[in-house]
Write a structure and sequence with these properties.
alpha+beta; Apoptosis, Tumor Necrosis Factor Receptor Associated Protein 2, Chain A; Potassium Channel Kv1.1, Chain A; 3 domains; five-stranded antiparallel beta sheet; 10 helices; flat
Length: 331
């Protein structure tokens, strides 16, 4: 009799952002800055950063960065990981100088791995990622583990709800936009996703006793994107493009998100607008941020204007820049 067995590899992944404040104050050829301890794959890790090279350095013009296994023992731990510089600007996801390491073994004899040429001082200065004397390093760790556990697939809830919107199956409400456009929707979905719709459709308001509502002060294309988000929890693909049409839609969508109290959608719009700032759009974007209480977006606009023009010309108060505390070096 032949016994059949099977196994799968489950990857435990984790991401740690290592923020170094007061980078220029780190002096000395072997100066070390250590991150806080973070846990991935049932193991504790820390990041070691030598801005001027470590004790083995032959060239102090390069920064060294290492991943250290804190609880290394006799048993080997196999892990893949990568380091990259992150843009410390709020809401930004840009990265540079990515170094990847695959299937390295950590143990009591080899508890740390990394690179002696993470980034040169010249490249760091030119990257634009050392902002306000602050450096942000992202480390992503993947620890594969052989297991016989039952694998549960990811949720398809957003896809299934999206199919309801696309097909109109069992829709119980019609939303009329102006006189020409109507959408078949599900009351329970709108009520679950927006407290404003919940009050309109499930409360004592007139709309809760009708099977249709009319909205006259929103564009049909904008409302269609709102529905896309309400059902699918994401934005349409065309809004991922860096085009004028996409930017205009984001501006209108931010207004709609504020109106219907959808805070996550509102922050998504803030993030996208912060990445498209230029001399033509920063004024409009700042007006939107102030009108709809988008504090993070407002901060991005002010910082952009401060970088583009002298503070006196822009009329921006000097409190937009803050002195960094050297004690925050290892935050």
């Amino acid at each position: 009799m032949v016994t059949k067995t099977s196994s799968v590899v489950v990857v435990h992944a984790g991401e740690h952002l290592f923020k170094i404040v007061g980078h220029s104050q780190i002096r000395g050829s072997h100066s070390l800055v250590r991150s806080g301890i973070f846990r991935v794959g049932d193991h504790d890790w820390t990041i070691l950063y030598y801005p001027n090279g470590d004790y083995m350095a032959v060239d102090d013009q390069f920064a060294y960065v290492f991943l250290l296994l804190m609880n290394a023992g006799e048993d080997e731990v196999t892990a893949s990981f990568d380091f990259s510089l992150q843009d410390p600007t709020p809401l930004s996801t840009g990265e540079k100088h990515k170094y990847s390491f695959t299937t390295l073994k950590f143990s009591s004899t080899s508890s740390g791995w990394g690179t002696g040429k993470f980034v040169s001082k010249a490249d760091l200065a030119a990257s634009g990622y050392l902002k306000d004397d602050c450096l942000l390093i992202k480390c992503v760790v993947n620890v594969p583990k052989l297991t016989d556990d039952i694998i549960v697939p990811p949720s398809h809830l957003a896809k299934d709800l999206g199919n309801l919107l696309d097909s109109g199956i069992n829709a119980d409400m019609t939303v009329k936009i102006g006189s020409f456009k109507a959408f078949k929707v599900h009351t329970c979905v709108l009520a679950a996703r927006s407290p404003v719709f919940r009050a309109q459709l499930c409360g004592s308001m007139m709309e809760s006793r009708e099977n249709n509502i009319c909205i006259d002060d929103i564009d049909a294309e904008v409302f269609e994107v709102v529905l896309h988000y309400l059902y699918k929890d994401c934005l349409p693909e065309f809004m991922e493009e860096n085009t004028e049409d996409a930017t205009n839609m984001v501006q209108h969508l931010l207004v709609a998100a504020d109106r219907y109290a959808m805070e996550r959608l509102k922050l998504m719009c803030e993030s996208k607008l912060s990445k498209t700032l230029d001399t033509d759009t920063v004024g409009i974007t700042l007006d939107l941020a102030e009108q709809y209480n988008c504090e993070q977006l407002k901060s991005c606009c002010i910082k952009y204007m401060a970088r583009s023009q002298p503070l006196a010309v822009c009329g921006i108060p000097n409190e937009v820049t803050k002195k960094l505390d050297h004690n925050d070096l290892t935050t």
